[in-house]
What does this fold into?
Amino acid sequence: FPTWLDGSIGRVSPLGFGDDTAQVTPKEFVEKMLEYVNQPDKPGVKVVIGKCTGIECTDGDDGDKVVTAVTYQDGEEDEQKVLQADDVIVSAGPWTCQAEQWFDGAIQLPMEGVKSTSIVWKPPAGDDTVDATALFCGEDHRFGTHLEVYPRPDGTVYICGIGGSDYITTSELQNSAFLFDCPPKEDRVEAASSAFTMMSDTYKTRGELDKTQACMRPCPPDAKPYMGSVPGYIGAYINGGHNCWGIAWAPASGKAIAELVLEGESRSVDLRPFNPARYTSQGRGGRGRKKKGLSVGEQW
It folds into this structure.
């Protein structure tokens, strides 16, 4: 047992023993990827903070449109800018559905955003490290939670599975709902903290809450991400809607889309089940097919 699991608990059973499990800290993962690719012997990547407002195109010889640039609102200088581009990959989480507008209705990307609260605890007073055992809890009807507890290498503990999620519609996401401000729900922070400290006397007596936050999970109706080309456009691609698995699937998804862009097809992943035009009605964009999906609710 981890030393911090020293409160009131029920039956416990192992899912893994460390040699067959792993976890990723999203912020650290992204920062290390950028650090790697920007080494002196690497091609380098420039990160621009802003909000995409549209895609510029020219007419191709065969009737398709050819991508030439991205227009965006600069996040630092607060002005409209244009970024020239031969290829554009829309990978914007739940707000990927805004691409319907950018591509003039050539593609339909129904999306539900699941807005969920999470919390981060500091290491207990006097402890420099925390046992790395992750914990997946059953439903706790006293607090309406099903906690997932993830100790991290820096000694903090990230907790999600707090319950009380809000469901944001496609139209709300297309209007940038919660894009700039995604606040947590204070009642869920209190519920999660109460549930956690009940199972951990260590954190109840020596712990301190560090951060309260919320995220927005991108959920297409059939629980499959959108990955592939935009019909009727040359140089336009979608890679979004991966729910809570985005950070884990990112390397495989990135490789598949890179192959599609650079080589014309993905060799590592069969992208047909993830066709971004699978909900596009006949006649829209000239190439889509219509599919009615069933909502699978809060997906995991």
Notes: The chain is about 20% helix and 25% strand. The mean pLDDT is 90.
